[in-house]
Structure formats: structure tokens, C-alpha cells
Queue: 4 jobs
Job 1
Amino acid sequence: MKIRSFDEAGAARLIVDNPPVNALSLSKGVVASLTDALRTALDDPAITHVTIEGAGGRFSAGADILDFELPPEQIEPTRELFALVAGAGKPVIALITGEAFGGGLELALACHARLCTADARLGLPEINLGLLPGSGGTQRTPRLIGVAAALDLMLTGKPVTGAEALSLGLVDEIQAVERLRSAADAMARKGVPTRAPRADAVQREELRLTLHKHARLLGRSVAARQIGVCVEAALDVPLYEGLQLESRLFHELMASSQSRALRYAFFSERAVARLPGLEQVTARPVASVGIVGGGTMGSGIAAAALEAGFRVTLTDTNADMRVRAETVISGIFDRDAAKGRITPQQAQERQSRLTMAEGYEAFGEVDLVIEAVFEDMAVKQAVLRSLEDVVRPDCILASNTSTLDLDILAAATADPARVIGLHFFSPAHIMRLLEIVRGRVSAPDVVATALAFAKRLRKVPVVSGVCDGFIGNRMFEEMLRQAYQLLEEGALPAQVDGALERFGMAMGPLKVMDLAGQDIGHKIRQRRMAEHPDRPYSIVPDILCELGRLGQKTKAGFYDYPNGRNAVASDAVNDMIRSVSAQRGIDRRAICDEEIVERCIFALINEGAKIVEEGIAARPLDVDMVWLNGYGFPRDRGGPMFYADELGLTYILARIRSFEKLSEGWAWKPASLLVTLADAGRALRSLDTAARISV
Ligand code: 3HC
């Protein structure tokens, strides 16, 4: 039963009951049942008005995204329902609690009035799926609250609270949850409010200014541009014509590659936590967390865990570090409070769950300990061994290592099955990605607990097997190899980074290394060159280190940073790169953006496929979620694996084979998985399980 209904005080109460989020599903019959229930109420002379609400304290998260796979003609019933609501001869009033998102809010907008609780959340997040609000949102929202506020809602996709919605004019009244129905009855008796139309000339100027404000987004997002077109139409044409235009553009967007990629990202971010093989495994309960090390990582992890409601005990043998960590953590919460993200009381409550301690004895009762000490095998092994002496036998021991072999680390303990890697990315309380490194003998319930813990931190957890660099850094290494190579062949840093940023990467790889610190890259290269002397690196980044150009922290790396953060091309570095080419006898040539993008991105794709083939990542979608959430890969391209499928594996393979003929061709050995899939005419996506969607 997806719609429950009963009559009360002359009102028909219609309740959408489609857990977990009350999506207005076509395939599950929600739209049809709601239409039937509404028709019955409208035909019943004893009913004076209708209220619509959502079960479980949630109005509706909108259209069922899984329905987007249906052929367009099967989406007709939604239009019928919305027309019935808007044209009803009796007042139809939406009672909003929890979320009213997308089609859920559009349903409320089609109603004659809206009442909501102060903490409800209302939004039109379709842009996050590469779509526009397709059930009247682009037409009714500007008519109700004006073009500027409507565009802000639709272009940012960010929700507003009930209280904010009232001041925007999106809802008519705020009420306590238990008063919603009676207030709606009173409103129906009095007559629902009407609004005066807005002055046209002001609206046009607001449209121009707001589109200008969002110019960068409009340059990239097809959906954003179409939202602009629809909102402009709302000023020019009658509602029914605007609705027709909106519907046509919605269907066009649905077929766009940006929307396919964004929908894939939405479901994949949820599918990553459903790792095949762990379906029947129960996670251990975690209420308290121990952290070893009060450095940047330890403090950030502590802040993330406190924010998620855990009790946290942080130890550092160094008293100064303990003071520093406590100050850093309270600073994070104070800033959140100052920005209005949380109340001062919430900040205080979070801080009150933190205990600082000197030694490990404080960990006697914790459920999980994460070590975030110096990145050195012997140091970390000693920490894990000491922890074993004090923690409970069922306490999970996690390492935040980013480079060390977890199996060797775990082997130092008496019970390696309870050891796992939790590779947080800096700043740990902000970055969404968490690589969970599963050792050869990590127990399945330890992995399941790590996944559940990560979900509570609101991270995107991706399970990686043990290998050098895990999923993310191992792939980044191959991108960097190409970037350095391109410098020697004829490109300059600003061109390499610029081409990749225009492709959509949040930051070019050379700027990333300037941010991370060139000395870190140097250390990793030294180790890898000792391990694989047959795989030489460009000497360009090493010369930077010799020159003391360690990146942003020394205000000089591949670029100059005269005011700290903004990269400015450096003539000295560009000359150095030219002289390296000359020394190596390379005739520098003009290199186009397309070659830069193909070599850097296809290197990622090839390595990602090897990672899937070796079982380091369970599925291609796991690789993609690492890159979307930790490495700034453009979300509207889905991730390297999704992008490979979009271009076609046959094409990718042909290009990889042509790169094999380059001077460092050994780096381009094609992944056998790519060869097998391309030969069979299959896509990487065909290997995704538990993804719930096939875009
Ligand atoms: N359709 C189908 N499934 C949905 C859904 C939707 N609109 N929204 C959420 N779900 C599913 C999720 O995939 C997840 O499934 P799983 O448990 O099998 O992985 C489950 O519901 C719970 O979702 P979350 O894990 O995200 O739960 P949270 O409580 O953290 O968040 C939420 C709930 C805030 C509603 C969040 O899910 C959300 O933001 N959903 C997307 C809302 C959205 O984008 N709506 C617009 C849809 S497009 C539209 O309406 C078009 C219209 O204009 C025509």
C-alpha cells in the first residue's frame, strides 16, 4: 500500500508511504495510487478539502530515479497527477515534514497551499542529476518566489529550511508537526492565500543578474543552461506552454551524457558500501573511537568522528601535540558555529565527547582505534603491538597508512584479522573519500564495521585491496608519469594543468603536487625507483626539489606562489624544463590539449582497469567513486571507468596501443581486462554489481 488515506473533519488525508524516502514512483504504482485517491476525494461531496503528507516524517524525495530508465511515454501519468492537483476544485494542501525534494516539492507547488515545519528541508536538486525540475518546478517556482530565488534554488540544488522557505514565499505557514493538519483545515475554511503577480521589468533584470552570477556553472552544465531557458519562458509564455517546454527539455536532458554520469554517481556512491560478499555479514557496534597521534590527520579524524556523534579518546605522548590537537579540533567546531552551520551548544556538545590522554591505557574500553602516527613501518608496527596489550579482544585496530603494506603491518600483531586500513584524505573532516584497505586476512565483519563506521561519518567508503598506493594514488602515479613526460616532450606546466582543468579536473596534477609538497613525491619516487629500476621517472620534479622549490609551502614549485595560493607560471621552471629536454636530446614539439587529456586520462583508465582485473577494487564503480570523491575527477563525466565506457573501449584500446609506441611505451601495456572486454564488445559497467542502475 503506497498511499494510505482516511477522512477526518471534512478533509481527505492522503499519505505517501513508500519507504525509505517516499519517492513518487511510477513503477511501484505510487503515482497511480495517489491519482486514484485524489480523484476519489474530489468526487466525494462530503470532502471539503484534501491534505497530502509523507509517512515517516518525510514528505517526498521526488521522482523515483530508477524510473528514469522507463520509456518517455510511460512517464505520462505524472503529468496527469500534477494537472489534477493544480486544477482541483477543492483546496489541496501540502503538509511538509522532513524533505520535500525535486518532484516532491513540485507536487507541493502544484497544491493550492503549503504548510511546513520549521526544520523541514525543501529543494530542487535535479541539477545534481544533470536534469531540470521536470514536473512544473521551472514554471511554478519563479511564479511563486520570483526568478532570482527560483534560479538560486534550481542552479545550486541546495535545500532551504522551512523557516527560509517561509521568508522566500515558497510556503504559506510554519507549524509544529502536530498542528499541521488542523492548521490546514482552518486555512481551507478561510480560503487559501493568493499572491499578487510580480512586476515584469524587475523580473527580467533579476534574470539577467542571476544568470550572470552563475555564469561559470552555465558554461559547463547543460542542465543549468536549460533551467535558464525554462525560467526565461516563465516570464514570456502562459503556464501550460511553459510546462510543455519544460517537459521536452527534461527528456532531452535525461538522454545527455552529463545526466547519465551524474545518475550513475548518485547510485554508485550508495552502492560502494554494499560490497559483494558482505551482504550477510553483521558489523560490530561502534560507539567509541580511540585515535593515536595528534597531528593534522589525527585531529581531522577526531573532528569527523565527534561530528558523527562518537565518543573519542585521542592520545599523543607529546604534551604540546595534545594541546595543539585540542585547539585544532575546537577551532573546527567554533568555525562551524560562527558560520551558522551548527549552534554554539552543538559545538560544545561535540567537544565534550573528546577525551585527551597521554597513554594507551585510556583505550581499554574503545571499540575501534585508529593510529595516525608517523608514516614508518617500524613505528606503526610498534604502535599496533602496544595497543594489543590494552584494548579489548574485539576492538578493531585501524591504520591510517597511505603508502605502507597493510599485510606486513598486520603481521606484526597477534591477531591480524582485526587489522584494517582507514586511509583518510586531508583535511579528514572535510574530504568525502575514505579508502578502506582490506588486508589479506582482515575479517569480513571487520570490513563491514569499517564500512558502517564510514557511512556514519557520511563519507564515501571504497574498499581497496593491498597494493602500492591503493586505488587512488596508484592511478594518480600513472597520470603524473604522463604529465612529467609531456613536459619533457614540449608542454609547460600551465598547459598540462590547464588542459586537464578544462576537461573538468578540480586541479591539474602538477598543481596537486605543489599542494602536497614536492618532497613527498620525491620520497615516493626514490622508493619506487629502488623497487623498479626498470621504470624510470622524469628528472624534472627531482630538479625542483634540488632547487628547494617544494611547492606552496615554499611559495615555489612548478609555479610561483607570490601570495601563498595562486599559481603563477615561473620562467625559471619553464627554462629548466626546456633545458632538461635539450639534455635528453628531445626535440620539443607543440602538444595539443587533446593529447594531454588523452594521455593523462587514458593512463588512469588503463591502471584502473588493471586494479579491477587484479581484484584490488571489487568493481569499476569503486574506482570511479575514489576519483570523484578524492581526486577531483569531474562528476559530470562519472569517473575514469564510466568515461571509458562512454568513449568506447575499442577506441581507448586503440589509443593506448598507439601510445605504446612512445619513448616510455612500457608504461602503456594495455590492461588485459580492457582487451578482453573490448574484444567481447562489453563495457566495464557490465562488471558492476549492486549498482541498481544501468545507465
Ligand atoms: N529515487 C529513488 N531512490 C532514491 C531517491 C529517489 N529520488 N532518493 C533516495 N533514494 C534511495 C537511495 O538510493 C537509497 O537507496 P539504498 O538504500 O538502496 O542505497 C535510499 O533511498 C536512502 O537514501 P540515502 O542513503 O541517500 O538516505 P539519506 O537519509 O542519507 O538521504 C535524501 C535521503 C536526502 C532524500 C537523499 O537520498 C537524497 O537527496 N535523494 C535524492 C533526492 C533527489 O535528487 N530528488 C530529485 C529526484 S529527480 C526528480 O524529482 C525529477 C522531477 O523533477 C521530475
Job 2
Amino acid sequence: PQTIYLSDYTPPTYLVDQVHLTFRLHPEKTRVISRIEFRPNPASQSREFFLHGEDLRLISARIDGQEVSPDMVQGGLRCDVPDAPFVWEAEVEIAPAQNTALEGLYMSSGMYCTQCEAEGFRKITYYPDLPDVMATFTVRIEGETPVMLSNGNPGATRASFAEWHDPWPKPAYLFALVAGDLVSHPGAFTTQSGRQVELNIWVRPGDEGKCAFAMEALKKSMTWDEQVYGREYDLDVFNIVAVDDFNMGAMENKGLNIFNSSCVLASPETSTDANFERIEAIIAHEYFHNWTGNRITCRDWFQLCLKEGLTVYRDAQFTADMRSAPVKRISDVIALRARQFREDNGPLAHPLRPESFVEINNFYTATVYEKGAEVIGMLKRLVGDAAYAKALDLYFDRHDGQACTIEDWLAVFEEVTGRDLGQFKRWYSQAGTPRLRVSDDYHDGTYTLHFEQDTPPTPGQPDKAPQVLPIAVGLLGPNGDEVRATTVLEMTEAKQSFTFDGLAARPIPSILRDFSAPVILERDTDNAERAFLLAHDTDPFNKWEAGRALAREGLIAMILDGAAPDAAYLDAVQAMARDDSLDPAFRALALGLPSQDDLAQTLHDRGHTPDPQAIWEALETLRQARAQHCQDLAVRLYAQYQVDAPYRPDAEQSGARALANAALALITRTDGGAQAQRQYDAATNMTQQLAALSCLLQAGKGDAATAQFYDQWRDDRLVIDKWFMMQIINADPEEAATVAKRLTQHPDFGMKNPNRFRATLGALAANPAGFHHASGAGYRLLADWLIWLDPVNPQTTARMCSAFETWKRYDDQRQTMIAQELDRILATPDLSRDTTEMVSRIRG
Ligand code: DPP
Ligand code: ZN
């Protein structure tokens, strides 16, 4: 396969002013008739005319009305064209019902839908399928289905056709079409300048009752973007459609967002509090793309983080405003470490702005999204809120309607602040997670923090230069009072020291407050200091972090030295959990333990070979000890945080349920599951039902509930996904691969639905001790299924290969087994470009 390089970027040779598309829908032979107005791009030297096209049957092509016979070449066609504006017309045939890759136009549960990002439009018709070719689109859909939607505003509509016009120039990746037997949950919104916008959430009949929450989230997002970023919606309608078969979470097509049904449909009976929160965030994310992504898009796919990092940052701000900012921050850092740090410390590490790719779908990564958002957060912290707001105004003002680069983005900050962001830009070009080592000293009232930064080598990048690190620091006095409020130290050198004067005693530092930079902080300290910070730190993130470090160090000692559970941790966590002045959601998070994967990475970083089974056993032992240590408290918390009021998925109720369910997990370890069974039997919402099921499964008492759950929910696909996942995630490591294999033989398992596939094989990878079981059964099962899925859906296959990305951490036997599986996948005939690239990078 061919590698594409950022350095090879050239402007498009021809630009497009207007596109007119007619679709004659048919499951096996849809006709797509295009009329495209091209003109030579003055910014391009070349006059070569190439249109992308894949899996298309060309029926006819014309230039300015004259029939032409283009050269059909790999990935598209070439044609001689005038060195002047001209009209291209083509008719092609495609087969949406055969499209299982879920890119381009395909069918899902009887409806037609599209996914064009990144390069799906070329499977619909011949086109310059590049993000910097922006055009206005008019679409006519001819078919029999009751509802036929495309981007923009509706035009004429009859029983047999619908017309749509999108006045905003856009790249083809934002094109969308949906047609089917759909019903709408309607809504309305008036923008700040008085535009009346019709809102719809379109779903299959029967799902109407699960749209109200997403509709409210949409309205809140629209209001928030006006208030916080001054961004207003710009069309008369905003449509959202729920689709069962979808590779991603959702897609921000202009005026017609398409959502994986799991990211939009919600009801208290079928969705957990976590599902509700995620839906609210994704609705916001896709809506916010209207400005950061659509009105201002990316010049090329290497700039993907320009829209994704910024939009993730914006949706995180939104969630922080709607819910609890500290809880959102802590949850995001947990996810960042679990996904992005893992990626950044393995064979798939890549810069925020990659320099090359084979398949761009493989770069919709935690790095581009989550690290991309962290970098925006650092920039904001460095320049301050006011300058950030000014820079964003300038960005929207200057670049509206353009396809931009990271350079354009940084330039507005440089102009507004007068700063040179040359060194800051390394965040976009250097892969890897910086290690930040800190030591300190104190003499005569002066306290000094000494920092050293160092970023380990990553594939293709042996040497790293120092990066700009905003380090938020506060100081506490020995009595626990804060003696220096948070201040941001700006580190730019490899080694740098900062002093604080006028201190009466040696302070206790609280470093990297609010996780002000995405680095791994290394500091030689002791459990006494960690317990002190857990008790006294005023920064909620660092308070949580201190508890997390206590737990982690105790677990590492258990794993490496066979130590007993750490009494300091047990006392400290109990004191924290019983402190009713703290937010219950925070306490629930603080009762969480480092994941198996976290511990494996920590052990690896410290020069040990992690043993997945030993990690799992240490966690079990600690959980058991903690349950005994906190037995009375757990019973008290469980009773105290029951929610009696009617179900609401808001921060307050979800926090109470999270803490009560954390208490239930403790209780289950001492009562054998009796309380969990009572909660399961009495549950009136999915949060309660699923938490109880999870406790029962972990206690080995889940058989009856598992059978009952299936009978209750067999007709609800999204709930049955949970049923698949729960049994595998909570399986004993000895059993996990067997359980997963058995479930792949269940009549409800199928490869065509990405959600179901992830709920089964993804769940196996999310049970590390099970997946890495010494028998190798987990590796074999996953590799088998990836090989089977690849011809059906390369994109989802390639994503799931990352289950193997940590393989070099493990012992020789495991490495040998994994290498065999990776080689077996690579040797598969006709392996997709997506999977070939991923497995080759992982194999190294
Ligand atoms: N659907 C993906 C997202 O919104 C890609 N744009 O992030
Ligand atoms: Zn996005």
C-alpha cells in the first residue's frame, strides 16, 4: 500500500464551486448522477485532473455536455480537461446493500445512510475527495422511503423525491444522506440573533421514547456555544439520525449529524448514568463541530487534530459547566492515561500531527483527540482566559469558510499575545509522553522545586527536544493550610528550577494541579505525604491523585514483594470515603483503583515484566481487604446514598448512585452477593440493574441474573450489547476466553454490527488478565475474529488490533504467542490496507 506524506501536500489542481447530486435509491443498484462545476485553482501549478473513486461502476461521463472516456486508474480516474471552468457530469452505480464496511452509502436496519469521513465520499461518486476542496451542494433524492434527508435546508419535497440545498461550502467528507422509515422527535431553537431552527432526532419507529434527553442536550449545547464562544447555528434545520450499524460514535455532517444509536438513544430503564453523560457529551461534540470542523475545516488529514482536539476540548468545557468540573477532569485524565498514554508509550505512538499515513482511518486516535485537547488546555493556561477568547474570535473571524492548518491556529495566538509559539509547536510534532522528574529543597524560608523533563524515544523519533510545560503548583503548610495558591510555572528547558520565598516552614508541594500538562510526574515521596495531600489538598485533581498514588504504590509492593495491603492506604481511603463534605461522585472516583493496564505499564516503566495474573490477584486481595476494613462504612454509605426521587441522569443523582454502587461492590465482598441480588431484583433503572449484575458476576453468583437479564431485554440491541460485555469483562481470568468464545456462538452475536463485535471481542481485550492468560487462548480467539472481520469491516478490525499494542511489555512466552498471532493476521490473503498498516506498526 502507498504511504501519504504531509511534506507532499500540494493544493488541489481544480476547485469546485457547486455540486449537484441526484440519487436514485435502490439497495443493489443505486444510481448517483453528479453535475460538478470545476475551475482551475490559481494556487496550483499542475493542470492534472484526477477524481477519487472506489467501488463505483461508471455508466457515463461528460465534460461541458460532451461524452468523455476517462482513464480508469488505481483509486479513481484521470481525464483531459479544459484549462478553464467546466462542468463535469457523471452517472455511476453503487450497491449500498453490499457495503458492509460502513463507509460511503450503505444500509443499516433497512435504512440508507452514509459515512464519508475521512474518505468515504469516493465510494459514492467520482470527486476530488480532499478536505480542502469546499463546495456548495444541492441534492435530490429519489426513492420510495417516507423520510429522505441530506445536508442544509430542505427544498421541494414530494412522495417520490426530496431536495436539499446546503449554502455553506463544505468538503465532501461532510456530505450525508439518510433515507428510511423514520420518525422524528421534534424540537425547536431560536438563536441569539433570532433565527428559528427546526430540530429533529430521527429514529426507527419504536425508539421515539428514547430521544428526549439527547434533544435537551442539543439545546443546551446550542445555548452554551452562543454564550461561551459566541457561535450561532447557521441553517434552518438541524437533523440528527440514529443508526444501528456505525463504525464511530457519531459524525458531524453539516446540518445532518449521524449517530451510532448507542450515542443518542437513552431511557432510564435501558441506559446507565454513564451512558447519559456520554450522550450529552457526544451530542455537544458533534454540534460544536459546526464551527470547529465545518465552517473552519482541515487543509489535509494530517491536520485532523485541528478540529478534533479543539472540539474535544470544547465538549469537555461544556460537560464541566453542565456537571462537576473536578469530576469531569479526573474522569478525563483516567481515560487519557488508559488510552492515550498507553498509545504514546507503545509501537503506535505518533505525533499529534502525523507526518505520514497509509490509511487515515487509523489516525482517529486517542492521541489526535485526547492529547489534542490537552494541548489546547495547555495553550489556554499559558496565555490566560482573556487572550484565549480573543484568539478564538480572531480564528473564527479570519478563517471562516477555509481549510486550515496548525500553523493558522497557532498564528492567531501569536498575534493576540505577541508570544513566540515556536517551541510550543513541538507538542504537535513530537510523539511520546514527557517524563517530568521533580525534586526539592528548603533553606531559610526559600523553597525550590527542581524539574527535569525527558521524552522517551518513539517510532521514528529517537531524540526529543524540551517542550513547554505549564506546571500548576500550590504549596501547603505542615498544618494543612494552603500557603501559596496555585501558580503556573512555565518550564521550557530540559532542567529548570523555581523558587518560592518567605515561607515559615518547609511546605508540602502540590504539583501539576488540575493535571496542567499531559506528562508522567516522577517524584520520590512517601505514603505519609500522599496521605497528607489526600486529606488536605485544595486542588480536587491532586487530592484524587494522591489517593491514586497511595493505592498504586501499595499494589506495586504487593505484586513485587508480596506485601500485605497497605494500612496507610486503607485508613486514608476510609477517611476520604466517610467525609460527607466531599462530593459523592468524587468519593466514588477516589474509591476506584488503578486499572490492571495502568499497573502493567507502571511495572514496565520501572523495569519489571508485568505478570497479568499477579496484577489481577493483587487487585482482588486489596479489594477484599478494603471491603473488610470499610465494612461498616460501606453499609452506611449504601443506605445514605440511595436515591428515592424519580430518576434524573444529572450530576447530583448520578454521583449518589455511583457512591452507593461503589459501596455495593464493597458489601458484595463480605455478604456473598445478597445485597446485590436484592438491588438487582428491585432495580427500576439500568444503572442499578447493571451495577448489581456486575457485582453478582464478580461474586460468581451471576447465573440467574444473567438469564433473567437476557429474557427481559432480548429485543433491545443496545441493552443486549451490555449483556455480552458484562459477562466477559467480569469473567474470571481462567474463564474469560471460554466465555467470550461461547458468546461468539450465541445466535445474537454477529460481525456486521460494530457495537456487538466490540461488546464481545473488545470486552475480552478489556479483561487484561483474561486476555493475556498464559494459555494464549485469548490471543488466538481475538486474532481469529479479526481475520474473519477484516473483509467485512476493515475499519473496525484495524481499530481493535490495538488490543495487542502493549505486547512488548510482557514475558517471552507471551511475546512469542502474540507475535505468532500478529504474523498470522499479516499472512492473511487480501488483508485490508487498514489492518495491514496497524498490525505492521504493532509488530514493529
Ligand atoms: N465522527 C468523528 C468525530 O466527531 C469524526 N469527525 O469526532
Ligand atoms: Zn470530532
Job 3
Amino acid sequence: MTDIAPTADTTAPFTDLPLSPALQATLAQLGYLRMTPIQAASLPLALAGHDLIAQAKTGSGKTAAFALPLLTRLNPRRFAVQAMVLCPTRELADQVAQEIRRLARAEDNIKVLTLCGGTTMRPQRDSLAHGAHIVVGTPGRIMDHLERGSLALDALNTLVLDEADRMLDMGFHDDIVYVASHCPAKRQTLLFSATYPPGIAELAGRFLRDPQTVTLTEQH
Ligand code: ADP
Ligand code: MG
């Protein structure tokens, strides 16, 4: 993970956003005062319900850019998977899950489950049977759970493709297509990528609806 030191000259405060008092309080506790440029560009659009293609480098604060919208929409009293984040690797999925848990900590009963390959299915199936609000995982393993019927997505309202270009590099194209095809049509889809190769455009054209595009290429 990269440390970020957002500077006052480029970014607006989170208090500009229509976030719940609980999320505002959590952000203040975490010391998140000003939005990073990708957050400032994408959060107003994502919170307004738009599908989004967001292009920005690693360490730019993309996790909060999708975590805050999905947490805003989450109903903690509905114990069903309402948001899903696809990531290229277990390490990234763990980082994303950790950041979502940090941002969700004002609600003590939000369950975030990671579903990645390389471990046996059984414990993940048991955890899913106990219920989760948010799943974060790699496309292959999530596809496995869908094929076996251990993951239900009928309550899903937000699908996030994180580091989409890396997922394609790792050969996850068909798995992503399978998973996205099993999501309810009425949902918000947020696609984050450091680069925008043709494969990403193809995925976006297939699974995003009237997406807004946010590009921050000159970031360091
Ligand atoms: P990316 O996904 O773009 O690589 P991350 O979402 O992992 O970036 O964020 C990088 C680091 O910056 C994390 O440690 C995160 O906690 C921190 N961070 C994100 N947004 C802010 C913010 N607005 N203010 C302060 N720190 C932030
Ligand atoms: Mg990231």
C-alpha cells in the first residue's frame, strides 16, 4: 500500500459529499479530511448512482471511491450480499476488505467476506451460509461459488471491478463475464483500472450502463 498525503490545493473535503453522519464521523476519525483527486472526481458521480469507469494509478485512494458509495446504499438489517468487489489477487482482495471494514466500522454488524482461490471451498461455503453483506474476491473463486449455488446475488446492488486491467492480464476475462452475467441487471457497476486497453472497453461496453468516465493520468 502506498501512503497518500492529499494536499489542500487539489482536493475538496469529504464534508462536501452527501454521506451519512456515521460515515462522516468515521472518515474524520481515520484522518481522511480531504478527498484524493480520484475520489473528488468519482464520488459525486458514484453517489448520484452513475456507472463509472475510473482510471487512476495505484495508491490514489480508489478503494474509498467505491467503498463509500456501496456502504451508502447498504442496508445492514438485510443479511444478504448487496455489494461485490472483484480483485485480481488474494492480497488485493484482503486489502480492499480491510479498507471497507475500516470505513464501515460505525456499523458494528456489517459482514465483509473475502472469497479467493488457493484455499478449500468448504470454510467459504460455511461462511456464506452464515450470511454476508459484502463479498470481495477473485473472479475464479466467485464463479466457483456461483456454479455450486453457494453464493446468491439476487440482493446485489453494486458490482465493482477493481484493477480491471490486471484481472484481464491474469486471464480472468471469461470468469468476469460469467460473474457479471449472474448479477441483477438493476445495479450500479463501478470499474477501476490503471490503464484502458481495448479489453476494458469491451467489458465496460458489455456490463456498464451509460457510464461516466473519470481519468486521472497525470497523477504521481
Ligand atoms: P489504490 O486502490 O488507488 O491503490 P487505496 O485505496 O489502497 O489506493 O489507498 C491508498 C492509501 O491511502 C490507503 O492506505 C488509504 O487508507 C489511504 N487513503 C485513501 N484515501 C485517503 C484520504 N482521502 N485521505 C487520507 N488517506 C487516504
Ligand atoms: Mg486499489
Job 4
Amino acid sequence: ATNRTFTMIKPDAVEKGHIGGILSMITEAGFRIVSLKLTQLTVADAQEFYAVHAERPFYGELVSFMSRGPIVAAILEKDNAVEDFRKLIGATNPANAEEGTIRKKYATSMGENAVHGSDSDENAAIEGAFHFAGREQF
Ligand code: CMP
């Protein structure tokens, strides 16, 4: 069924000038852009967004990385969006990411891995609503 996922182009990829390249890979893979903006997470936003990882050893590093500069936030729509988008982005660790994935091409490291993709339909809805009002969803 057609459904939605949520993505962020993370600060590392924005800093390196990869917004256009990543959006091209996304649209060429058949995703429709429902919502799109350049924005920046505050420390408090990043803490809330990644609250599920609060007990992990890398939480502090993750929060400071994700709030250090602008990101691109987007809601995407496609058949089987959540699963297909996670295939398109590739493994969390770019060393394990397959050829043709966004992380293979653009990620720097396990932490600075260029893109986020929601892990479930439920989280996609929560994460999309975190960034976009109803009138910003097309
Ligand atoms: P993502 O899977 O999008 O969301 C959780 C993020 O935590 C992950 O991307 C990485 O950016 C980060 N992360 C996961 N594992 C590690 C790790 N071992 N060290 C540093 N950051 C990590």
C-alpha cells in the first residue's frame, strides 16, 4: 500500500553539499516529496527526537552532532515507503552499506551517516508531525 516515511539529511551531508545529490537519489527511487524544509534542531529537539536512544553510550555525541548545523527534513510517499526507504539508505555503518545506497555514497562514519529513515509506520507519523504541520503536507 502507498504510505509515508520521514527522513532527515543530517548535518554532515548538508555541510558537504550533498542535499541535491541525496534528493535526486530519493526521487529517482520513486519517492514523492510530501513535505520538505531546511531547518536546524535545537539540543532539546535532538534530545526529544532521539529519546529512544537516551541510555545508549553514543546519545550525547548523537545529540550534539544532530544539532550542530542545518538539516533537511522531509516526508516521503511511496508504495511500502518505510521498508523501501531503509533499503535505499543502507546499513547504519557505511562500511557495511551496499553499493547503490545513499550511505555507501555519502556517509562519513557510523555516527555521521548522512541520512535518517523512520523504522516503522508509527514512528514515521510521529517524526513527520514533529517537523510539519498538516498544511505543510502535500
Ligand atoms: P540512525 O539509525 O538514523 O538513528 C540512530 C543514530 O545513532 C544512527 O543513525 C547513528 O547516527 C547513531 N549511532 C548509532 N550507533 C552509533 C554508534 N555506535 N556510535 C555513534 N553513533 C551511533
